[in-house]
Amino acid sequence: MVVVGFGIYTYFKVDAYLNQALRDSLLHRAQSIATMFQTDVTAQGENAVIDHAKARFTPEENDRFCRISEKREGILYVSGEPNDKSFDSRRVPLLNRWGSPTSTVALKAGGTSKLLVVTTLVTVGDRTYLIELGYSEADNDRVLRGLLVTLFIGLPVVIGVAAAGGYILLQRAFRPVREMIEKANEISGSVIHSRLPVRHTGDDLEQLSITLNKMIHRLEKSFENSRRFTSDASHELRTPLTIIRGELEQLLLNNDSTSERVKQGISSLLEETDRLIGIVQGLLALSRLDAGEAQRENTRFDLGELAEATTEQMSLLAEEKGVGLLCKRNPRVEVRGDRSRLKQVVVNLLDNAIKYTPRNGKIELDVRAAKGHAYLEVSDTGIGVPPEDLRRIFDRFYRVDQVRSRAIQGTGLGLSIVWSICSAHGGTVYAENLDSGGCRFTAELPLAD
Questions:
Q1: What is the chain's Cα-based Rg?
Q2: Angle at CA 425, nearest 5°, toward 218 and 419?
Q3: CATH 3.40.50.980 at 299-446, yes or no
Q4: pLDDT for the residue 87
């Protein structure tokens, strides 16, 4: 819009300049003729002055219009037809300009363009002369048409060059920002040692990069302290919990004189001890995953075979619960990664489905490949997940309110472990409720090359 406005402004500015230049030129010539009348009419006579003006200014050869009139006698001289035929002298109307010393008027006189006429009054003795000089605006029109053509051709070129130049400059200006964004997307809790690139340009962008890198450094230290505490605490708690569990089992098995109430208390303590041991083991597993141990191996194997073998191992647990367990798989769904970690994904998903599927329910595990990815789906006919909780069930220690009961034991870490392992293998995991009831968990992993 700015360029278009500039073009319009230029056009009208040039038009005004050309018209003003033409008026000034005609007025200068008319005043020259008026000066000749004032100085020579008395000595030489008006006819001689007119002949001298005609010879000096040659209006026909210069494509100008000239007419000299006397107030009482009328027209004394009128020029002939110009060489360029831009106007007809005979069709120029008489202008009643006896009252004003000078004036300018544009009128049509048989040509394609208007004729610009300048009039000047001069008084010599008792005689008043009206001098009219004119020139066609055809030359001005040609210049303006050329300017329009230039603007119509040049403006798109200028706009295109400006847009291309602006785009290139913006790309160069935002290249450091894009590099920072790409590097920031690579930084996560498990890959937090990376830093944003710093360009030493001395501007605010350099200061922003340095400030963000300092913040990432502080976050890295915080993550390291948190992981170290989790790992150390889990490792240190595992041994005393194992000892407590062994001592409670010995009390329960070897002391026949123990009352039934005490035995129930010991059994309850054993259950809570087992639950604490599960939490400690989960925390220890997560701390190792956060430390980058999600892929201790990088082998190629068939995910379907792994899922089928794991399903057979979990079938006893499903039978005890009274739940049907079925595995379907397509041949040769091969992935690359840590076989033991991905087996843990299958185990945790199946264990989660068995826990929350009621008796006589059904669980299906399906392994397939599509669009360069392997999909491991575990569907159940259980109680499902409220829609508002679907995004949070992979958070650590998060458990849906309706399943927080003593009847269903869990630590809230199993799905977090699944998410961490899938992420470390370049994949993801998500959950969705089924229209028929129940829920489906899908682990998506890249296929092996």
A1: 49
A2: 70
A3: no
A4: 82
**Residue 360 corresponds to which amino acid?**
N
Q: What is the pLDDT of residue 65?
A: 86
Q: What is the pLDDT of residues 56-87, one digit of tens each?
A: 878 778 888 888 888 888 888 888 888 877 78
| Domain ranges across the chain | 2-142, 204-290, 299-446
| Residue environment code for 362-382, b if the CB has 16+ CB neighbours within 10 A, otherwise e | bbbbbbebeeebbbbbbbbbb
The reported pLDDT for the residue numbered 84 is: 78
DSSP 8-state symbol, 190: S
Q: What is the pLDDT of residue 349?
A: 93
**444 C-beta neighbours (distance < 10 Å), count:** 17
Q: d(Cα 387, Cα 29) in Å, to the nearest integer?
A: 92
Mind spelling out the 3-state secondary structure of 88-115? CHHHCCCCCCCCCCEEEEEECCCCCCCE
From residue 308, alpha-carbon distances to 113, 299, 415 in Å are 94, 18, 20
Q: In whole angstroms, give the CA distance from residue 335 to residue 301.
A: 6
Q: Which residue intervals of 291-326 are DSSP H helices?
A: 303-321
Do domains 204-290 and 299-446 share one topology? The answer is no
- Give kind and range of the element (H or E) at residue 393: none
**For the domain 204-290, what is the CATH code?**
1.10.287.130
- Distance CA(181)–CA(170), nearest Å, equals 16
Q: What architecture is domain 2-142?
A: 2-Layer Sandwich (3.30)
CA-CA distances (angstroms) from residue 244 to 232, 250, 315?
Answer: 19, 10, 31
pLDDT value at residue 229: 61
Q: What is the pLDDT of residue 377?
A: 94
Burial of 146 (0-12, 13-18, 19+ CB in 10 A): exposed
CA 348 to chain centre: 40
pLDDT of amino acid 102? 77
Residues of the chain with pLDDT under 50: 402-406
Tokens 């002939």: give the residue: 80
Packing angle between helix 204-254 and helix 138-186, nearest 10 degrees? 30
